[in-house]
Amino acid sequence: xxxxxxxxxxxxxxxxxxxxxxxxxxxxxxxxxxxxxxxxxxxxxxxxxxxxxxxxxxxxxxxxxxxxxxxxxxxxxxxxxxxxxxxxxxxxxxxxxxxxxxxxxxxxxxxxxxxxxxxxxxxxxxxxxxxxxxxxxxxxxxxxxxxxxxxxxxxxxxxxxxxxxxxxxxxxxxxxxxxxxxxxxxxxxxxxxxxxxxxxxxxxxxxxxxxxxxxxxxxxxxxxxxxxxxxxxxxxxxxxxxxxxxxxxxxxxxxxxxxxxxx
Length: 263
Description:
single chain, mainly alpha, 81% helix
């Protein structure tokens, strides 16, 4: 890999340990969410009606943990998606400057589509981080419906961010030369894990919608779903969404370590 490539990588990924901030999305967000539900159940009977994250976060003492925890998580999530956009921008430059595989659609047009998808992805990702901060504010106002709506918007923007990123990456992989080692290096194993994460989020989001419809009796679709199962699906969807920041952070860490090691 050329010295110019490593210089460019240094320019796009600052010396500040961004990867640590990215991983805090998971390492602060997930424990805060688990503690919120645990504290709620310690103060209420959850054996027959387990709480959703939205419901637990609007009650003391759960929101005493949720509010500061998700303020930090939301801020770190915005940083994580910014770091993701820098990596994606670098991948696009590497593909553009290297040989591109001939396709029925010109590579320059596919590259432009990939850029657009990358922009949409980071905008949605940044919005999802902002919504986490908004969730904390709404929680303090005891707004259950507001909290529920904001939670669903978070799931939607987070899902859009990972799906658009995955689509943009698949386009880059389609046009990148098999001999482009720099592109392969930037992707590493982390982009494969992010693709799997995106797929899992899509499937769980569909499951969450079905659970929401059945549990709230909006429609009878013939699937027996308990409130406990609904609570588990929502918790799993939250963990998957928060793990996006962890994967971005580890990817940034690997790229920086190898870049400085081999420059």
